[in-house]
């Protein structure tokens, strides 16, 4: 019996070559793309899930009630972790960590490594297994370090005979000698802590000067709670601790007008699960965990599968009409509902099995190009988990059940005589029309999202940031020499080049450079009896001139004024915060009044942080005791390529052992919205594929509907109907469905896109044109798809369709 069903299924699929091929091509494409999208989404969702203690380890953050509202931060003071462990019950381990770059030196080789400064308990709470060496306590001594396999390959060229070797690390302005105690497995790609080497925290250059300071915050703290202790209990246990250690800042907040929270507190410690760190933002003042990106990818994969399955179901239902006589004959010969159902299901299952195999092959072929395009390190291992395979199998079962079962159900209800006459009207099928509307609703949503995403990216790319981003190169100062000395040597080396206009330096980059690092420095002080918080930036001479910053009052730092080391340049937002009519009259006492700084200039606000944020208060310092980390070189626009090569050549002379990682600021800017560009690419790809799949289904359905109305078309033409009127008659029903989809999708798209744009301090205007363009695009594509078939039918000789009448 099964063999008979299989023979009939193959015969029917071969007889309907166009529809079979359409289904297989559509399903294969959709399954391959969805496989890659699901792989990417699962990879994103797996971030930090590999830690064995992920359910009991948390990142500590502090919320503060300020005159500006609720603010939270993860940066903590050096004495916090030991004090928490000693004074707060329920804490098993407390660990400090700080990510930084270090210059590692072994014999004649110098290389920059990604470093994690941490306490010995780092390996008690995080899962980073040892391959060789001291697996129990890799940081057992202040002068011991643990290095990853990749780090060992970079520095030594091999992981053999590395344990016990001595290396020098450039920490601040000093070189220190360390011993390799342990080789670690490389951190997995779905890890928030990507490092080459782990160094004892007390070796960090800022450790000694800040070991007793509670007002200097620059690192992260993680805690492992004792069994049975909840984050809520931790928060209650730290209330008295916070009141004691932050007493001064709490009193200042009250003085400045801060309002206590619902519990009457001005500062409160909170815990954030390490499994949520990758998805957390503090935009609202508290930790918000949003897995928007991976869920969006999963959503797009789902709608692509839905669209192609809707096509599959629609075509199976419509094709059933061609088999009415076969069904009538089967019923005459005694076939029952179960047998009819099994026959239809067998055909559906066969198409799905072939498409699944081809989809897996195509997915594997597209894997590497996909990973390159979307900048992901995901692998197909994420979709071969038993749970995922089970869900996939159940999905195929359900879809084929509907595709095969629904037509069989309709056929089994028909009387035998009616079936033999071939009388069944599928033209008004509600399920078919509902699926078409839903398909195009999704397609219009995706097109709207594509247009708005690209619009926002272009808006950010072309926005006036207040500085020159096209002609300025930023270079990480990652060599051994003193940073100020390197900037001066660059000036000397390039001073004869007429295309080099200015050179300066700062302790922070603009955008995200090739080194991948980004940092912000915050500081607070009292001014006229109230607390003031500002971003702090250390710069060298000619900083404003190099970046083309607009000076709105006073001047910038100059070599003609020896006292400029005790001077400040502030931005407009900082000037407003200080509240003086004449900002150049401001004198700010710091270091408990031991030093007074004078404001000598005000620059126009510029986006020195992420461009999705508002411009915050900024204060520029020029103090040679604070290191620079980036050099800036402004070049003439006439010879950009030649100038870049000249800068790179000069760098190779000045720092021959250090890698040149220079990049233009507009490139840095592009890197800051890499996630938005990836989202736009995924949504665009999903839109194109969704529209194509919808059109394939629409084309196939239009062929069937036109076939059903062949005689009607012939009669109308004999009675004088024109080709255009017949074409419009056949097309308008489909266009009505697309128009209904537009009406449904527009308010949904507007709501979600408007919510998404609120994440940006400045964004593109959500114009109705975005949605009109999306609707018109869908209508035009649908018209072109259906119109090509209807015009052919309308142009046919009516004699052919009426010759049997």
Automatic annotation (TrEMBL):
This is ABC transporter permease. Residues 300-414, 687-798 form the ABC3 transporter permease C-terminal domain. Residues 21-238 form the MacB-like periplasmic core domain. Keywords: Cell membrane, Membrane, Transmembrane, Transmembrane helix. Its main location: membrane. It comes from the Bacteria. It is a multi-pass membrane protein. The chain crosses the membrane at residues 21-43, 293-319, 340-367, 387-410, 431-453, 682-707, 734-753, 765-786. InterPro entries: ABC3_permease_C (IPR003838), MacB_PCD (IPR025857), Macrolide_Exporter_MacB (IPR050250). Pfam families: FtsX (PF02687), MacB_PCD (PF12704). It is found in: Cell membrane.
């Amino acid at each position: 019996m099964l063999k008979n069903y299989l023979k009939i299924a193959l015969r029917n699929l071969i007889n309907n070559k166009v529809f079979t091929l359409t289904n297989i091509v559509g399903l294969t494409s959709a399954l391959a793309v969805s496989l890659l999208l699901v792989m990417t989404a699962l990879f994103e969702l797996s971030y930090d899930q590999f830690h064995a203690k992920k359910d009991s380890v948390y990142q500590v953050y502090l919320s503060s009630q300020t005159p500006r509202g609720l603010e939270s931060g993860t940066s903590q003071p050096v004495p916090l972790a030991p004090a928490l462990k000693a004074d707060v019950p329920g804490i098993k381990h407390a660990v400090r960590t700080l990510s930084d770059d270090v210059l590692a030196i072994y014999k004649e080789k110098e290389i920059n490594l990604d470093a994690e400064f941490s306490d010995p308990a780092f390996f008690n709470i995080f899962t980073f297994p040892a391959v060789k060496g001291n697996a129990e306590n890799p940081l057992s001594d202040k002068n011991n370090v643990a290095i990853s396999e990749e780090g060992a390959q970079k520095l030594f060229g091999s992981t053999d005979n590395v344990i016990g070797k001595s290396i020098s690390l450039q920490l601040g302005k000093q070189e220190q000698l360390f011993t390799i105690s342990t080789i670690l497995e490389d951190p997995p790609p779905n890890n928030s802590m990507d490092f080459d080497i782990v160094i004892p925290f007390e070796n960090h250059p800022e450790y000694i000067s800040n070991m007793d300071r509670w007002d200097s915050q620059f690192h992260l703290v993680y805690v492992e709670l004792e069994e049975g202790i909840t984050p809520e209990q931790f928060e209650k246990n730290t209330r008295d601790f916070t009141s004691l250690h932050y007493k001064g800042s709490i009193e200042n907040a009250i003085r400045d007008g801060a309002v206590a929270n619902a519990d009457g507190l001005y500062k409160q410690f909170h815990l954030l699960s390490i499994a949520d760190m990758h998805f957390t933002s503090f935009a609202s003042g508290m930790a918000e965990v949003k897995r928007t990106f991976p869920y969006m990818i999963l959503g797009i994969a789902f709608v692509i599968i839905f669209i192609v399955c809707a096509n599959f179901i629609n075509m199976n239902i419509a094709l059933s009409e061609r088999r009415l006589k076969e069904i009538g004959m089967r019923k005459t010969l005694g076939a029952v509902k179960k047998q009819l159902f099994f026959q239809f299901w067998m055909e559906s299952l066969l198409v799905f099995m072939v498409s699944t195999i081809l989809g897996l092959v195509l997915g594997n072929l597209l894997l590497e190009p996909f990973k390159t395009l979307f900048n992901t390190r995901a692998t197909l291992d994420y979709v071969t988990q038993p749970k995922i395979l089970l869900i996939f199998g159940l999905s195929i079962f359900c879809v084929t059940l509907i595709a095969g079962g629904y037509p069989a159900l309709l056929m089994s209800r028909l009387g035998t005589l009616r079936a033999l006459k071939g009388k069944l009207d599928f033209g008004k099928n509600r399920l078919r029309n509902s699926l078409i509307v839903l398909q195009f609703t999704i397609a219009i949503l995706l097109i709207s999202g594509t247009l708005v995403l690209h619009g926002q990216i272009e808006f950010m790319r072309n926005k006036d940031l207040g500085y020159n981003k096209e002609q300025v190169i930023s270079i990480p100062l990652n060599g051994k020499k003193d940073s100020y000395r390197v900037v001066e040597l660059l000036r000397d080396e390039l001073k004869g080049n007429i295309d080099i206009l200015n050179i300066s330096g700062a302790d922070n980059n603009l955008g995200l450079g090739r080194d991948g690092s980004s940092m912000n420095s915050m500081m607070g002080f009292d001014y006229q009896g109230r607390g003031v918080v500002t971003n702090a930036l250390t710069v060298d001479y000619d900083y404003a001139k190099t970046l083309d910053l607009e000076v709105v009052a006073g001047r910038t730092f100059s070599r003609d004024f020896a006292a400029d080391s005790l001077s400040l340049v502030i931005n407009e937002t900082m000037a407003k915060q200080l509240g003086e009519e004449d900002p150049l009259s401001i004198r700010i006492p710091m270091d408990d009044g031991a030093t007074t700084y004078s404001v000598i200039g005000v620059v126009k606000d510029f986006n020195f942080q992420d461009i999705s944020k508002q411009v915050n208060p900024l204060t520029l310092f020029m103090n040679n005791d604070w290191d620079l980390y980036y050099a800036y070189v402004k070049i003439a626009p006439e010879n950009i390529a030649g100038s870049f090569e000249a800068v790179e050549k000069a760098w190779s002379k000045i720092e021959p052992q250090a890698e040149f990682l220079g990049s233009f600021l507009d490139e840095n800017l592009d890197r800051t919205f890499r996630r938005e560009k990836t989202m736009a690419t995924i949504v665009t790809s999903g839109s194109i594929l969704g529209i194509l799949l919808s059109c394939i289904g629409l084309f196939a359905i239009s062929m069937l509907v036109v076939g059903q109305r062949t005689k009607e078309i012939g009669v109308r033409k004999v009675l004088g109907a024109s080709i255009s009127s017949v074409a419009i008659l056949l097309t308008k029903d489909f266009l009505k469905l697309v128009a209904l989809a537009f009406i449904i999708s527009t308010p949904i798209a507007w709501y979600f896109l408007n919510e998404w744009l609120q994440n940006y301090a400045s964004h593109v205007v959500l114009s109705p044109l975005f949605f009109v363009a999306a609707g018109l695009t869908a209508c035009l594509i649908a018209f072109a798809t259906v119109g090509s078939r209807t015009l052919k039918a309308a142009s046919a000789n009516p004699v052919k369709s009426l010759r049997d009448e």
